[in-house]
Amino acid sequence: MGQKTNPIGFRLAVRRNWQSRWFAKKKDFPALLLEDKLIRDMLMEKLKQASVPRIFIERASNRVRVKIYTARPGIVIGRKGQEVENIKLQLAKMTGREILLDIQEVKKPEIEAQLVAENVALQLERRINFRRAMTKSVEMAMALGADGIRIQVSGRLNGNDIASRQWQRKGRVPLHTLRENIDYGFSEAHTLFGKIGVKCWICKKEEPATT
């Protein structure tokens, strides 16, 4: 059943940390969890052009710290920090809490699995051949220091009547080794022929575990 396990959830508390870090009483937990989801959905929609692979949320009493990882911090910050203030106001209005925003730049977007998956999906929407899109992403990730990468696309590829699944892999991607730093991303391409799912696994070089 290994291939059905989400590589990030599989490594929680061993290699990875939670993307929401807070503690709540049992009766408050569902509302705060839903609030986290609404914050993420709103930011992902608003910052679609800013290449955001992940968002961390921390809470302390009535204060919410939102850490946005982005490959294009200039888009998130805006001119003279105007965009950041707008986001803060929107989140404060939505949640009714004090919002602290923290912008972190992603140094190598080519080896962030979520961004690679979104990039391949974008190319498929522009009618670029799926093999060409996958090959380009694989080569760029390997050139920038990834230990291994696997990209899989599923759906009506190139407009074929019969849906199929194709994948490319280069280097090593050991999905069952918990100590390995495997990054995972998923995106969907909305084409004329229907949705095409894009999954990406990237094995990054050995570095100290985050706990």
Give your account of this protein's structure:
- It is a single chain.
- The protein is an alpha/beta fold and 211 residues long.
- Helix content is 32%, strand content 30%.
- It has helices spanning 7-10, 29-46, 73-77, 82-95, 113-125, 130-143; strands at residues 20-21, 54-60, 63-70, 98-105, 148-155, 164-171, 181-191, 194-204.
- The longest helix is centred in the N-terminal third of the chain and has 18 residues, at 29-46.
- The relative contact order is 0.15.
- The mean pLDDT is 89.
Task: Give a short overview.
The protein is α/β, with parallel strands linked by helices and 211 residues long. It is globular. It has helices at 7-10, 29-46, 73-77, 82-95, 113-125, 130-143; strands at 20-21, 54-60, 63-70, 98-105, 148-155, 164-171, 181-191, 194-204.
Name the features.
single chain, 211 residues, alpha/beta, 4-stranded mixed β-sheet, 4-stranded antiparallel β-sheet, 30% strand
